[in-house]
Amino acid sequence: MGDREIIDLSSDDESENEKVIPTAVKQEPDLVFDVKQEKSSNKGELANRNGPRIHSVRAAVDDDSDVSYASAICAAPLTRQFWKAGTYDDAPASKKFTLQNVKNYLHVHPMFLHSNATSHKWAFGAIAELLDNAVDEIQNGATFVLVDKTSNPKDGSPALLIQDDGGGMDPEAMRHCMSFGFSDKKSKLAIGQYGNGFKTSSMRLGADVIVFSRHMSNGILTQSIGLLSYTFLVQEKLDRIVVPMVNYGFNSSTGSLEILNGKEHFVTNLSLILRWSPYSSEEELLGQFSDVGSHGTKVIIYNLWLNDDGNLELDFATDPEDIRIAGDVRKIDTIPAWREANEKHIAHRFRFSLRVYMSILYLQIPESFHMFLRGIIVQPHNIADDLKYIEFILYKPQVGGTVEATVVTTVGFLKEAPRVIMHGFNVYHKNRLILPFWQVVNYIDSRGRGVVGILQADFVEPTHNKQDFEKTSLFQKLEVRLKEMTWEYWDVHCRLLGYREKYPVPKAKQGELNRKSYLVDAKAANENAELRKRTMRNASEQGSNNKRKIYEQVDLHNSKKHAKEENVKGVGISQNMQVIPAPAEQVLDQETLTLLDENQKLQTKCLESEKIQEELNLKVTDLRSKIEAAREQQNLLLAQLQLLDVKDE
Fold first, then answer.
1. Which of 280, 304, 325 is the last residue of a domain?
2. Are the beta carbons of 209 and 127 closer than 8 angstroms?
3. For this UniProt entry, which segments traverse the membrane (predicted)?
4. Disulfide-capable partner of 215 in 77, 168, 274, 278 (CB 3.0 to 4.6 Å)?
5. Of 470, 452, 453, residue with least CA distance to 461
6. For the packed helices 590-648 and 507-518, what is the interaxial angle rounded to 10 degrees?
7. Closest by alpha carbon to 423, among 410, 399, 440, 435?
8. 450 in a structural domain
9. First CA to last CA across the chain, in angstroms?
10. What are phi and psi of 4, to 5 degrees?
11. Is the peptide bond before 418 cis (omega within 30 degrees of 0)?
């Protein structure tokens, strides 16, 4: 077999003055398996879109048979455990490639795929990255994202499917997606920004990923298929990352697909995809577009990683309506009577239930957009609805005397407190949850137990894995302030839960805390809320123009109605709470402050009276029980006395 050519897509180091174009490189004869010699004829370059005959491949081989692999030869990597898969032996039998006439070429070794993915310690954090890509497509008309289990047709093993109906990717965008450091997300509202999330997340979940994307632009439809296979790179001992891709364009005049970018690389890339992907023929590959529609992207991650016990890290079996992390259900250290309530709480379950985690992952979701997990819609959940005795606290972080932002933090006790001992702040960035139930304090003698907060902190930057924030001075100041909020709130309100004050608050300080808590800058809070409502409304209007049938197993009429009822309307604010907007020029004079202070005192007295009333009701119930017991004792004694009188006679 003669030399073949393959495209190396790992080079993304482009100088400002010279564009690096990936050129064809010579491939050793044993790298492409079972690919027959190409003909020089250029007849039959079209592939029928819907029919079973795939002319595009047949034009490139000697006979009329398809390039296909019927056997299950996309073998799994040598080790199936992610944290042990970083060992890479590329000497001395490495397959080496060279690029011609390219300067400043960045050599990316396959081992980087694994080391880069280790930034995700938590599997759900990797799935969230892929969901972010779908949510960012709302501005391009996306109406849904679905997450489900699928299977590898070659060996029947489970695989993870993530699909959306966003704008899709043209061939160049697909190449950027598969490469490192590219990001075309210019919108300030976009969650993704580093151009690294797809690689880190997909490689964290499984050894291999194949992507199908269809894109429509200016009446031109393209569809691309790309394969990022760690298994292929390891088993072939390649010394750099090679990503085979095939691209098609739809010819409207003939109703067929044409091979794009020339057929000289097509057969080589197709043969690699068919050998190392779950699909054995070009017809099977193109069949994956059957449910994509006119635009959208489908990601299939296979050869999923195993945990230390040898089981799949993602558990598809325990709950047919959920995806769980196998073996990650931890016991809660509390009194037996409270254990069940804590184990069922969302603050505990999100760690191992993807459905729960997805429900709180985004602060707001447009009514036109839906998330599906295992065929069932995920209802958004507003954590603020789980709180009682809610307060809104204004925070203005500063650097060098300059105010960086105005943040309204929602703080309260969990409704199940004190039985539920969870606590912490849920910190969002650009609508995306970064730190769920972040425990800024370690409570001593119950101080801080049950206190939960919600805020959106766009003034600090998240880390690349979007599971933490960069440890800047602003973030450190935020952490200190949230600790203060927790203790201040606890010291003021702990009596309402029956706790004894361990750190009494002075009267002067009490008044100051009340003003801090209740005299929120209402104008800023409502401007913040109105801005996000307008943003979501615009995204919803764009998405509504591109609605289509999204999942046949779901009754969309009912699901949309329910989603509308559950849709989050505030900025981390409970739907049953309202912040009354103040006039733009309103100034709080001393009389207003006094009235508000009196109002707060009356509210506190009212709560205390209600608590006293509850205690009195309990005492009344207890006394009635005692009276009833005393009456029964009296009747018993009278009966015994009557028996004694009868004996005396």
1. 325
2. no
3. none
4. 168
5. 470
6. 110
7. 440
8. yes
9. 125
10. -115, 170
11. yes
| Predicted structure pTM score | 0.69
Parallel/antiparallel/unpaired status of strands 296-304 and 4-6: unpaired
Q: Which two tokens stand for residue 85?
A: 């898969």
Q: Model confidence over 115-140: pLDDT tens digits?
A: 888 888 899 999 999 999 999 999 99
DSSP states along 271-327? HHHHHHSS--BHHHHHHTTTTTTTSEEEEEEEEEPB-TTSSBSEE-SS-TT--EETT
Does a structural domain hold residue 245? yes
Nearest-angstrom CA–CA distance, 503 and 490: 10
Q: Report helix, strand or coil for 17.
A: coil
State whether 289 and 389 are in the same domain: no
**10 Å Cβ neighbour count for 525?**
23
CA distances from 415 to 239, 348, 386, 419 (A): 57, 15, 6, 9
Cα 334 to the center of its chain, rounded Å: 30
Q: What per-residue string of b and e applies to 63-93 under the rule 16 or more CB within 10 Å gives b?
A: eeebbbbeeeebebbeebebeebeebebeee
Is 288 found in the same domain as 437? no
Split into its structural domains, the chain has a count of 2
Q: Could you tell me the CATH number of the domain that includes residue 232?
A: 3.30.565
Is 287 within the bounds of a domain? yes
- In the block, tokens 């010579």 appear at 26
Q: Taking phi first (over 0 means left), then psi (-120 to 50 degrees means alpha), and beta for anything else, what does residue 401 get?
A: left
236 lies in which domain range? 110-325
Residue where one domain finishes, among candidates 477, 497, 517: 497
* Residue ranges in 446-521 assigned as alpha helix (H): 473-493, 507-518
Pairing between strand 370-373 and 144-151?
parallel
Summarised one tens digit per residue, pLDDT across range 47-104 is 433 333 333 333 333 333 344 443 344 455 556 666 566 665 555 444 555 444 444 4
Alpha helices in 291-426 (DSSP H): 336-343, 346-349, 354-360
pLDDT at 580: 36
